[in-house]
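Protein chain data
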Amino acid sequence: MKPLRDDLARWLPSARGRLGGLEVGPSLEHVGTVEHIGDGVATIVGLPWTRLDELLRFEDGTLGLAFRVEEEAVGCVLLGRGEEIGAGTKVHGTGEIARVPVGDALLGRVVDSTGAPLDDGPSIAADRRDPVERPAPAIVDRDLVTEPLMTGLTVIDAMIPLGRGQRELIIGDRKTGKTAVAVDAIINQRSSDVVCVYAAVGQKASTVSQVIDAIRTYGAVERCIFVVGEAGAPPGAQWITPYAACTMAEYFRDQGRDTLLVIDDLTKHAIVYRQLSLLLRNPPGREAYPGDIFHIHARLLERAAKLSAAKGGGSLTALPIAETQAGNLSAYIPTNLISITDGQIYLEPKLFYEGQKPAISVGMSVSRVGGQTQAPVMKRLAETLRLEYAQFLELEVFTRFGAMVDERTKRTIEHGRRIRAILMQPEYGPLSLAHQVALLLAVDEGKLDDVPLPLVNLFKDRIGARLAERCPRAMARVEATRELSEESRHDLLGALDALLADIGASTNESD
């Protein structure tokens, strides 16, 4: 006993010293238990002070989001797999809302909806963590959309122009090239200062990999962020993916920079929201969607804006994607999104199957604010392009019945076919402004009307190298000033004439 008393005598003073610095006080923990769980949602009891959208932490570290709050129970959507969670599992209320990391450290990275890396890279040292749900900028904090956002697609930049700070819906049936249009727009920003954020909602892992590989190969991946909530992710993670991506994009916008947000796609996002709502027994509405389905998309897309100079002058351009069934634009979700956005780019299945890519229907597409931002040279060259193309499409249908047409109508049809050929572009091949100007100038001057249609594609293939060789200064002036001076016009026309002469000569020799 004496050795034990000696040990206690030596230990007690040091223990009193260590414990003396501790502050003793009451602590409050908000702990509940899982009543039942399944399909990515859980019902929790014993959390009476939980607030809507509060983060909840399960025993195994999985996070959940309070999706439905009632007096007796809380409906929670899981943001992780939660394979170890079962009935009786303890759940802790955190008192926090969902946040994601933001900052330059995210550039070039692939992350999930919580900001955790998916690309096997190092952990992300973020500048800070911002809420995934943020209010849209007030009207007084916004400015007019005045700067163009070039997509590199001639049919869009000429006839459906976009502006920085605009919300433009890309809509069409499945497998008509919606994602390809958005990816080309991202790739084209390799020559600009725009930061791009791609949000994949409910997409297959293979599809997401193709997008990332294409941008790494052809674009500036070091200025892109990929936020992935793929089809295999929990429904809750898919649900917050577009909001998390928007928060990451807003960080750069608030710094005065220009950002582009692509959401692929909001139709799957609406389906995920319907699934979660029905599982948690929220009252269903039209087509079983909950009554606030319009609000969840409106509060997301309203965050895209051009900020005033007092707020830094940055912009956030949104290109949400939506899918239609059999071209039905009057369905519930498509009509909601069309009414929220500033216009739509409609991809028509008929054009796609005919081989016209991108399969954009010029007649059913519109950009309500982009026309004010269009480069002066593009505006002048495309002034009558849309009307001429519409007249051609109408006459082409008429002549399919074998009706006799006069010489003037034949010229109009042949001119329209050259327009259509110029508007066709391969995937991952966006064009610079000067390149598009040269093509439109050739059409506007009628230089292709007498060229056999198969040779127009040869002309398109060779024009880039010929312009770089014959008139690089004119191309640079067009890019810098966005105007077409008489000197530049003369140089471009000379290069076009020389190219057409070479093509004609080579064709004659082969004959």
Notes: The chain has a mean pLDDT of 90. The chain has three domains: 31-97, 100-374, 380-510.
